Amino acid sequence: MTTRQTDSASPRAATAGWVRPLCWSAVALEGFDLVVLGVVLPVLLRDPSWDLDPAGASVVVTVGLLGVMVGALAVGPIADIIGRRATMIATVAGFSVLTLACAFAPNPEVLGVLRFLAGIGLGGVLPVALALVAEYAPAGKGSSATTILMTGYHVGAVLTALLGILLIGPLGWQAMFVAGAIPAVILLPLIIMRLPESAEFLQRRGTRDSSWRRERRNPLSSLFRDGLARPTIAFWIASFMGLLLVYGLNTWLPEIMRSAGYELGAALALLLVLNIGAILGLLLAGTVANRIGVRPAAIGWFAAGTLFLALLSIRLPGIGVYVSVLLAGIFVFSAQVLVYAYVSQLYPAEARGTALGTASGIGRLGAIAGPILGGALLQAGIAYPWGFYAFAVVAALGAVGVALVGRAPART
Q1: Structural domains in the chain, sorted by start
Q2: How far are the Cα atoms of 214, 311, 384 from residue 40, in angstroms, in the given order?
Q3: Can you tell me the distance from the alpha carbon of 282 to that of 353, in angstroms, rounded to the nearest whole number?
Q4: Rounded to an integer, what distance in angstroms lies between the CA atom of residue 263 and that of residue 188?
Q5: Predicted pLDDT of residue 399
């Protein structure tokens, strides 16, 4: 059974209260960084000096997401071995510096290289933050702790859309990358001073048990023992579908709406509404999952996402399109977060970082496929409405993936 850090007499109790706000802030920076391309691409695609088309933009997005996948796959197991605090410090510092460098990219090739390198750090933030928050969550509140953490991602995305509206016109697209790097000047010293190490990690590091020494050599093996092989594969499928939706929509929704006849300001406003819906959905999803269980909640959220994505193919007048996008955001993005919550609950503490890292890392293949799919549909001129039908099918497959996880195997 997972142990929680609740002893107020512990010398680490003073810093335990910093876990959730610091992890939330790091995830918010990740959300800003991973959505910023969706905001600047409509400008870069119309800048004659960059000579960029949707296919080339998809390449830039894809190489950045390849870096995220590499980071997620590598950092999860590394954090289980060397510690989550040191890993968080390194990842936040790395992606913040490289995000700032993106403001000075002279062409798509350099921007792609910088996004790949920044992606390695970005990919490592989420598994570490999820593992720490799961450890420090109150008993019975693991789902809501995870979903509240992930509101940080969408707050970052909302700020990206808002700053895009405010900054790009007067200052240019470069200002967006500068704005994404500045908060790390405050956040990084706070992480260094206040973020505690995982109590479970410190306990396991001090043990002389031979099974722990084997885990240190091969943390991936724990994902396929004791009845966990089927859930591991099923989580990878669900995460692939969930992240395809998140990245596909965040990258291309403004451009898809522009192809449907909306002005740039309205298209960016719809991206803002989508991520506001995501925040509302996360707050609702955590409460529902705590009450009925994370598995049925995740299946229901993917199913509802299927319905509302399909409805986006209908062009609605006035405020109708904003309501439709808001409802899609409520269910689509929080479905993926419920997958993470399910992973956090299913695996033992010594494998949690690795399980979250691999689910996130394999899922990044979906994150790569989403922008490629959207770019291909835009290049073919059929992104509206067929893109929303395609995304609806993906959401349905996500529900199937969660259903295939089955019931949790017994753990001691």
Answers
A1: 18-202+214-405 (1.20.1250.20)
A2: 46, 27, 20
A3: 22
A4: 38
A5: 92
